[in-house]
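Title: Prediction job returns without error message
Component: structure pipeline
Severity: low
Priority: P3
Assignee: unassigned

Description:
Job completed but the reporter wants confirmation the result is attached to the right record. Sequence as submitted:
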Amino acid sequence: MCYKNILNEIIKFLKTNKKDIIKFLIIMVFVGITQNILFSFDKKRVANYVRATSETEIPFTQLTGNEKYGSQRGSIFYSKNKSISSQLKPIDHDAAKYNFWNPGLRKGEYTIYDLKKPFSLYKEKNNDTINVIKDGVKIQFLMYKPYWQQ
């Protein structure tokens, strides 16, 4: 009995508000199409990005924060289309003692993203360690495979 009343109320609402429902549906279709177009452009741009792996060699690179490529989608770009994960953690747990880190929510559990710029980084080929030099101090970050690639 209760379901019939609810169903009758829904049918009554749909009959009395046809114009509003049509306007709403037109707006939703427009938003959906626009969103698909924007995502397709972004997907094409992102398809050109290359994330460093343990096999990748990264030449000595200075990151000042003024680069046009910056960071995006969990990545820090060290050249135009080449990036490293922004979630790399220092190997040495004592690295938190330095005053290199942007203040954040994770006290003591910093990632390379939290490191204040400028700094330099490099990585040897076939090695899983990224070396960062900040104010004359070398901090090493361990690369890891995401859980879906292990």
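Comment from assignee: result matches the submitted record. The longest strand covers residues 58-63.
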